[in-house]
């Protein structure tokens, strides 16, 4: 078993889609072992997406991530990181495969409904930014 970190982004919470997205996650065999709804501060969003700080869309990204609440999650499965990336679909929803969360729900490359870690190493770092060990219950 391994873990990945997930965010249901503001475009998803705003449109009341958290249940529908969780259904896709669970049907794919990922178990939601921790979950909470939080409003990210600008500092939290800037730290979280720090790798993108030189990119032209950084300001827009931080603005969107802090606009409304998000749901942060820890997901567990065999090969959780690549499995969830597959379930999420491509960053740009126009390129996402049928049946993926982004194909089903995303509005645009910026408002693309979900985040998922891109490596086991980053998953551990991201999980620790939002959850203590005691809050993760497999
Ligand atoms: P995430 O890290 O959110 O899971 P990702 O790994 O598929 O998404 P990244 O390249 O890490 O994609 O980009 C992080 C986020 O930045 C994207 O999910 C998207 O919301 C936003 N983003 C990426 N590229 C663009 C772009 N060209 N214009 C606007 N926003 C973008
Ligand atoms: Mg990424």
UniProtKB/TrEMBL annotation:
It holds the Pfam family NDK. It is an enzyme of class 2 (transferase). InterPro entries: NDK-like_dom (IPR034907), NDK-like_dom_sf (IPR036850), Nucleoside_diP_kinase (IPR001564). Its main location: cytoplasm. It comes from the Bacteria. HAMAP family: NDP_kinase. Its EC number is 2.7.4.6. NCBIfam families: PRK00668.1 (NF001908). It is found in: Cytoplasm. This is Nucleoside diphosphate kinase. It catalyses: a 2'-deoxyribonucleoside 5'-diphosphate + ATP = a 2'-deoxyribonucleoside 5'-triphosphate + ADP; a ribonucleoside 5'-diphosphate + ATP = a ribonucleoside 5'-triphosphate + ADP. The keyword Nucleotide-binding applies. Homotetramer. Coiled coil: none annotated. Residues 1-138 form the Nucleoside diphosphate kinase-like domain. Its cofactor is Mg(2+). The active site is at residue 115. It comes from Asticcacaulis machinosus. GO terms for molecular function: nucleoside diphosphate kinase activity. Keywords: ATP-binding, Cytoplasm, Kinase, Magnesium, Metal-binding, Nucleotide metabolism, Nucleotide-binding, Phosphoprotein, Transferase. Belongs to the NDK family. The keyword Transferase applies. ATP binds at residues 9, 57, 85, 91, 102, 112. Major role in the synthesis of nucleoside triphosphates other than ATP. The ATP gamma phosphate is transferred to the NDP beta phosphate via a ping-pong mechanism, using a phosphorylated active-site intermediate.
